[in-house]
Amino acid sequence: MSEQQHRSTRKPDETEESVEVTEVDTEAKAKLDDDVDSILDEIDDVLEENAEEFVRSFVQKGGQ
Amino acid sequence: MTVRRVQGSEVEYGIAVQGQPHANPMVTSTHVVNAYAAAHDLTRRARWDFEEESPLRDARGFDLSRGDADPSQLTDEDLGLANIILTNGARLYVDHAHPEYSSPEVTSPRDVVIWEKAGEEVMRSAAELAGRIPANGTIVLYKNNIDNKGASYGSHENYLMNRSVPFEQIVTHLTPFFASRQIVCGAGRVGQQQDGSVHAFQISQRADYFEVPVGLETTLKRPIINTRDEPHADARKYRRLHVIIGDANCSETSIYLKHGLASLVLSLVEAGETVTDLTLENPVRALHQISYDPTLRTAVTLADGRTMTALELQGEYLTRSRDFVERQGDDDPQTLDVLDRWESVLTRLARDPMELATELDWVAKLALLERYRERDGLDWDHAKLHLVDLQYHDVRPERGLFHQLVRTGRMQRLVDPAEIAAAVQEPPTDTRAYFRGKCLQHFAGDIAAASWDSVIFDLPGYASLQRVPTLEPLRGTQEHVGALFDSGPTATELFRALTTGD
To answer: Tell me, what's the ipTM?
Structure first.
């Protein structure tokens, strides 16, 4: 979300430099999106199956 | 003024047997503790409390060579057995229906991280060992505090402090601090209200289970300030502040700051710099309001009518702590590090909490949850989000989501994993836990029982058990008794050296 804001605030000054920054930002954003996808993919691999049943059956006795 | 003081932590773990939702948690927890004892040659199992002659002194319960015994043979009396001392000075036992690890006494927040994390490794290993007992399925432990259906179990801190500070001052001074510190050390939760009936995220696992400002209870009507007064040391000099309002943290940064901040803030009140102008109009309500707002914008009402956010409240405690440290000219590196990190965390939280996604538990968890919500279009009542919440705390490296984040470089560590691995066996060197742990390392067979403030020997040639009191938490250190242990004495020689010389 903050990435988006940064880009829109930089849009007004159309210097070469800001274009470069935008490119870097886009690249970083793409990398971030890839990273997000890979986190979720990795976690999907280890998450217990049948989430609903698993969560429902986790019943604890109270402690301190 | 410093973050250094005698302190420790006590964590009850959630417990489940896969595929056996009705497994008796007291029996399973007992298996966890006893399996660990058996596998580490603590078969005589020095017990926690001193009891006179009793059959319980024998090694009973389950060791792995007797793994085919029927767990149903355990009676209630046997269940009371699961209570052992480890060679690192910690206590591993069954509390209510949960296995609990109480860290050895340490003297700094960083050491709390090391020995509390060592406890996670003890629990992981213990559950795995217990899972090998026939009839047990896979036993999974969770370092969390709730089942999201109404039950909560604790993770407590303890801090040794000066007895002379009046308790009312402690209450006034600490309540606004405890109500707001969750923005640093909350563990995050999907669900609001004790039974999770409101579908939304909140910062703290435990907040909803606190119902009164001050009290003695720990299992119901839980108080923000707990009045339990067991110093486990010389009661004329010390108070042991028992803090029950805290989440079980996986993040090393969260554990470190939880203990560092509390130690500093306690130093303020000990020095007579009591914070009296931040009293909350309704502390319990403020605690809940703060927990329910992960944007951190909610302002809570003070008794004098002002309103402040949790960030502002924490900022006040930070400023006063830093001022006091500067006035005193304290240059302890860990104290300065805690102050700097505290400030850095508050500054970044104010800018965008997501900046802390690689450091703090609640933010790391929320970041994951939000990504799932975005990718899969999930509402807060979706079982998958509850599963992510729960599995974040799974102690198994191959399953726990926190571990996954660490392994893939998405969660920062504070200490060298080798230090944690060593702390599974080795006690801290600078408290009485050193003496306790070394006794267990060298003389497990000669020790009948031990507790925080004593070690009880059963020595050949002595008709009765011999008690060595350890009432001073800063005695019995490596400096005091290290050479004695290194000289390779028998238990009797050690006992005689201790009781004749000193």
So the answer is: 0.88
